[in-house]
Write a structure and sequence with these properties.
This protein folds into two domains: 191 residues, Quinone Oxidoreductase, Chain A, domain 1, CATH 3.90.180.10; 132 residues, NAD(P)-binding Rossmann-like Domain (Rossmann fold, 3-Layer(aba) Sandwich), CATH 3.40.50.720. The protein has 350 residues and is an alpha/beta fold.
């Protein structure tokens, strides 16, 4: 299948139109016309080579919403015309204990990311959602509930599942006290989801300029991390803290905020962190943990949860040819919304 997307040809180059071919339809494949594609901060890091050398040309994008164009003869759950989604993974071994446990992101043999990785069968580099079409095996395609607003679904496939999974794993429920560090693309979804689970949510930020925004999302307010007195008063006041900051930072100012048995969960930073001071951990049986997206079953659960609770990401719609401007905004710091590309303006014939 001939298609077109926006690709980076090196770590220091702008994204430009790129014509390429998708694989032929396999028996268990779903061919999708991409309608909307989210722009994630991790796309910027990957394109820039911040997380290691990349196979250029590279078409990013792992927040994909589209319409089924065709299906292979063995596909059972999807039909032409159906609205579907694809997230951060497009394959895994399907045989190990982690895959059987519906946690394909931790596949013992390595899951296949939506872009920038060798296809398990052909070895060709996977290319992502900044494109007009994609072909994905059925097991990694998701159903989009009708109650969701289609243009705003895409970020749920990354920002949504990345915050939903740890909230579920650490048993956030009615009355839980949750802190969310950062109010960008990940953070604002963490607030919305935790509030819907019944938690009392506080945003942790370096200033109070996002206080009203936090309250509008359902948080009780902002705890200013640069206010030493306020931080001392808040010691021991959180059960779970989601750390959504995507750059290197010091977590030691936050661990004393955890109650006994509390956990600080890193979901935003892939790379070196300041070394944690052990005293606050030992003295309160506190933990610093990490969480990586979620499995396919859990990703379907967050889509259904968002439909049930009318939760949508805060989105700014852009054209594909505006993606470089979006990257520039992401590079400048926290953006309190997610950029979503309307792919209808992208034509294979261009």
């Amino acid at each position: 299948m001939k298609t077109v997307g926006y690709a980076a040809h090196s770590s220091d180059a702008h994204m430009v139109p790129y014509h390429f071919e998708r694989r032929e339809l396999r028996d268990n494949d779903v061919a999708i016309e991409i309608l909307y594609s989210g722009v994630c901060h991790s796309d910027l890091h990957t394109v820039n080579g911040d997380w290691g050398e990349q196979p250029y040309p590279l078409v990013p994008g792992h927040e994909i919403v589209g319409r089924v164009m065709d299906v292979g003869p063995d596909v059972k759950n999807y039909k032409v015309g159906q609205h579907v989604a694809v997230g951060c993974m497009v394959d895994s071994c399907q045989e190990c204990d982690q895959c059987h446990n519906h946690e394909e992101q931790f596949c013992r043999n390595g899951m296949t990311p939506t872009y920038g990785a060798p296809d398990r069968n052909s070895g060709e580099t996977t290319q992502g959602g900044y494109s007009k079409h994609i072909i994905v095996r059925e097991e990694f395609v998701l159903n989009v509930p009708e109650k969701l607003d289609l243009p705003r679904v895409a970020p749920i496939l990354c920002a949504g599942i990345t915050t939903f999974s740890p909230l579920r794993h650490w048993n956030v429920k009615q009355g839980s006290r949750v802190g969310v560090i950062g109010l960008g693309g990940l953070g604002h979804m963490g607030v919305k989801l935790a509030v819907a689970m019944g938690a009392e949510v506080t945003v942790l930020s370096r200033s109070d300029k996002k206080s009203q925004e936090a309250k509008n999302l359902g948080a009780k307010g902002v705890l200013v991390s640069t206010d030493e007195e306020a931080m001392k008063e808040a010691a021991g006041s959180f059960d779970v803290i989601l750390d959504t900051v995507p750059v290197k930072h010091d977590i030691n100012i936050y661990t004393p905020l955890l109650d006994v048995n509390g956990s600080l969960v890193i979901v935003g930073q892939i790379g070196p962190l300041e070394e944690p001071v052990t005293a606050p951990l030992v003295l309160g049986r506190r933990s610093v943990a990490g969480s990586l997206i979620g499995g396919i079953k859990e990703t379907q659960e967050v889509l259904d949860f968002c439909a049930e609770h009318d939760i949508h990401p805060e989105c700014k719609m852009i054209r594909p040819d505006e993606v470089n401007d979006a990257f520039a905004h992401l590079a400048e710091g926290d953006v309190a919304h997610r950029f979503v590309m309307d792919m209808s303006t992208l034509s294979v014939d261009e």
